[in-house]
Amino acid sequence: MAQTKIETWLTDMDGVLVHEENPLPGAAEFIETLKKNKRRFLVLTNNPIYTPRDLSARLKNSGIEVPEENIWTSALATAEFVSDQIPRGSAYVIGEAGLTTALHEAGYVLSEADPDYVILGETRSFSFEQLTKACRLILRGSRFICTNPDPTGPTDEGIVPAAGSVAQLIATATNQQPYFIGKPNPVMFRTALNRVHGHSETSAMIGDRMDTDVIAGVEAGLHTFLVLSGITQKEEITRFPYRPGMVVNGIGDLLPIAKDGRYDPDTFAGRIRVDHAQQGTDGEAAASGSGIHLFG
Prior knowledge:
Elements: E1 4-5, E2 8-12, E3 18-19, E4 22-23, H1 27-36, E5 40-45, H2 52-61, E6 71-73, H3 74-85, E7 90-94, H4 97-105, E8 109-110, E9 117-120, H5 128-139, E10 143-146, E11 152-155, E12 158-161, H6 163-174, E13 179-180, H7 186-196, E14 203-207, H8 210-219, E15 223-227, E16 246-248, H9 255-260, E17 262-263, E18 285-286, E19 292-294
C-alpha cells in the first residue's frame, strides 16, 4: 500500500492529551514533535467556557506546551459561523468568557433587544431567568444556536448537565431545535482546517470518542485515529456503523507518524510494540503484541 501523508493534525484534548488535567503518556512528546517538525496542528475542544489563553495555561500546568493560537474551541467555531452568516450581528448569550470573548472579537454585540441569535454555551450556573429570556427571544424570531451537543460534563463529584441537555429544555419549550456547532458537526473541523490552511486529504483527527471525534473526522474526509485512553473502549468500536482508520492505545503510539509525516497502514503496526494488547473478541483485527489495531 502507498504511504499515507499527514501534514495537518487535529487532536481532541480531554482523553487524548489529558485526563482531569493529568497528562496522558506521550502527549507532551507528541506536541513537541509536531512543533519541532513544523507540522500544522490544532487542539480541538467542545468546551466553550475557556478562552484559548486559559486552555493554553491549563495545558502548560499539565506539562504540555500548546500555544494559544493552536487551540480551537466550539466557542471560536460558533463565533466564526455566526459572523459568516450575519456579519457584525447581535446575540443573546448564555455562557462564560470563552464564548463572549470570541463573539466580541468577531464583531458581535451582546444584546437582549431582538438579537439575531440566541447562543447557548456552557456555564457553571444556568438560571431560570436566563432560560426564560432565551425561550421568549426564540419565540419572537431569534435563531437558536448551541455551541456543543454534549448532554453531560464531568466533575470530581460526578456528571453535571451540559449544554446539550439544556438545549433540549429550550427546544421543548419553543418547539425550535438548535443548530449545534461543536463536534460531531463537520463545521467544527472545516473551520479548524481553514484556520491552519489544512486540506482534508492530508489531515488527521485524533480522538477518544467514536460518537464525536471519529464520526466528525469521517464526515469531514479526514484520516482518523481513535485512542483508547478516553471514553470509547475497544469492545464498543464494532457497535458503530463507521470505523476509525486506525485504533491505538494512546497518542504516544503516533509519535513516529508525527515525526515522519507519513505512514504505511500495512506496516505501521509492526513498528510500535506494547505488552498489554490482546486479540479482540468482537471481530476487529488486532496486531499481536502491538498497540495498533487495524481495520480492513
